[in-house]
Amino acid sequence: MELRQLEYFVAVAEEAGFTRAAARVHVAQPGVSAQIRRLERELGQELFDRSGRTVRLTEVGAAVLPYARAALDAVAGVRLAVDELTGLVRGRVAVGVVASSAALDLPDLLAGFHQRHPDVEITLCEANSDRLVESLLAGRLDIAFIGLGSTTPQGVETQVVADELLVAAVSHDHDLAARRAIPVTGLRDLPLISLPPGTGLRSRLDEACTAAGFQPRIAFEASDPQVLAQLAARGLGVAVLPNSLATARAAHLHAIRITHPELHGRLALSWRTTGPISPAARALIRHTRAMLGTAGRGE
């Protein structure tokens, strides 16, 4: 039994497919399949049910999975202990970010880290906040920039790096274009344009509407805030946007302050609070917090 076989096994189980697992471990799909077959022959049992469209764990596979994860965690712990003692900063760090992160100069931040630690490979992915938190907790990401709702997700530490007022943005010929402010209850039954569920902005909107006793009527969803602004500018509804984005498009949009309560969109640096953290990940957290002016709390 080899460590790489356990690594491939865990990847296939978590990704529910050989192709996605192969992309995750950076190995050709036939290579992953061959190693899993070797592991199954050694154990004398099939670990996956391959009969359906998706790959599923067999009963034996489900029983083996926690032990495989524990073995890989133990090896990671050994490497981490050695690297901590020798002061090495190498390896790989994985960063996640939401699409609505215009307030963050991420390329400059990552370039600065690369200059300080050229032996560390950096990867970057974009997803909604809920998926990023899930990846943090699973150890697939080392840090992530997420949009926060009213509560902090369990299992992660966060540091707010941007806090901005959210507004209702409409075209200049919209019926609401003469308004300067609108209460949350005034959004009832209006066709709203918003980021999708799982984003911090959408969480704030949904929470406020639920507290006011109604469900928002979402006419359009898009993961790019720029698209939301364009839809509102064409008169297709009321977009809930960060104030800076609405005012930057003042020629096409009128921004209306949302009140009772005010809504704020918060962008936060986040990292998990449990499990081993590599020296490279620790260095990235320190660098990021220093660049963002948030140093001061323990990693």
UniProtKB/TrEMBL annotation:
Membrane-spanning ranges: none
SUPFAM superfamilies in UniProt: Periplasmic binding protein-like II, Winged helix' DNA-binding domain
UniProt keyword list: DNA-binding, Transcription, Transcription regulation
Ranges in coiled-coil conformation: none
InterPro entries named in the record: HTH-type_LysR_regulators, LysR_HTH_N, LysR_subst-bd, WH-like_DNA-bd_sf, WH_DNA-bd_sf
Entry annotated with the keyword Cell membrane: no
Chain ranges of the HTH lysR-type domain: 1-58
Family in the record: Belongs to the LysR transcriptional regulatory family.
Protein name stated in the entry: LysR substrate-binding domain-containing protein
Organism: Streptantibioticus rubrisoli
Taxonomic lineage: Bacteria, Bacillati, Actinomycetota, Actinomycetes, Kitasatosporales
